[in-house]
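New to this. Please check this record:
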Amino acid sequence: MTFVSSAAMAGLALTLMVSAGAVHAQTADQASSKTPAPPPQTTAIIDPPIVHAPPPPDAPSKDNLTMPKWSEFPVPPTDVPTVSDIAARVSVQTDARTSLTAEVAALRWDGDVGQTFHDTTVSRLDPDMLKPVDAPMSADAIAAFGASLRKQAAPPPVAN
């Protein structure tokens, strides 16, 4: 089984329609001299009327089909880098990448740096804050804690 693309099928259909139209036109010319014309209903079905769409509003008028003049084209740029300029820039970037790679390779990476940072950070913290909660606070303890915070609080100043 052979599969044919839709574009090929469309081309084949168009070719057949054009061929059929040409044959129809030839037989219509030959037949018009010999036989009477068919009724208008049949002609409308076989040869539908051709309707031309109006041109778009921004289409140029038939009077204005001139080509632009060279003086209307923009001036070409003069500061375009040459091939050697671009090659020099690429070389500079390549050298910078090579030197950065060498600097990173020369760095000494310690495996215990993370543990050292952890130990110094934990040593600065309050040890009581690191302990787990022994038991949940009772409702009375929570109310007393809230009352102590309210006593410490001061209202904001009054806006003038």
Residues 6-34 form the longest helix (29 residues). The chain has a mean pLDDT of 76. The radius of gyration is 45 Å. The chain is about 55% helix and 0% strand.
